[in-house]
């Protein structure tokens, strides 16, 4: 366990794994339909980024920026757009996940 609880090693490993899967998806992008490419992105990338993202709620902007690079790269591969044409709200997705978990806990909608 990281004595400072700064999540740097966790973020680095998530980014490394995400870019690995993104490179593989980009190689297959020419033969994948839009729906299949989106499925690949959700299965490999979003699952990596969404796993325990509630822990990312208190991150500094510099650390969130690193995660945002993965989101933006995935969006560019999926939509075949340039870097400046798509922005994904990473902070919004983290806040939404926390609010959703809180809502489910308050209303008894969580797992048994």
Query: Mean pLDDT, nearest integer?
Result: 78
Q: Helix segment count?
A: 4
Q: Main beta sheet: strand number and arrangement?
A: none
The SS-based structural class is: mainly alpha
Q: Return Rg in Å.
A: 15 Å
Strand tally? 0
**What fraction, in percent, of the residue positions are helical?**
55-70%
Report the uncertain regions.
Answer: none
- The end-to-end span amounts to 29 Å
The 3D shape can be described as globular
What are the main properties of this structure?
112 residues, mainly alpha, 4 helices, 66% helix, globular
Describe the protein's architecture and organization:
- By secondary structure, this protein is mostly helical.
- The chain is 66% helix and 0% strand.
- It is built from four helices and no strands.
- It has helices at 8-28, 34-50, 61-79, 90-106.
- The protein is globular and about 45 Å long.
- The mean pLDDT is 78.
Question: What does this entry show, briefly?
Answer:
It contains 4 helices and no strands. The protein has 112 residues and is mainly α.
């Amino acid at each position: 366990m990281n004595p400072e609880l700064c999540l740097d090693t966790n973020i680095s490993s998530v980014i490394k794994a995400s870019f690995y899967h993104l490179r593989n998806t980009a190689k297959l992008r020419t033969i994948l339909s839009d729906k299949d490419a989106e499925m690949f992105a959700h299965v490999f990338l979003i699952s990596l980024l969404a796993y325990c993202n509630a822990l990312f709620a208190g991150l500094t902007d510099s650390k969130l920026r690193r995660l945002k690079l993965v989101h933006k790269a995935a969006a560019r591969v999926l939509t075949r757009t340039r870097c400046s044409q798509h922005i994904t709200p990473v902070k919004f997705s983290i806040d939404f996940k926390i609010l959703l978990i809180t809502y489910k806990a308050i209303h008894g909608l969580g797992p048994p």
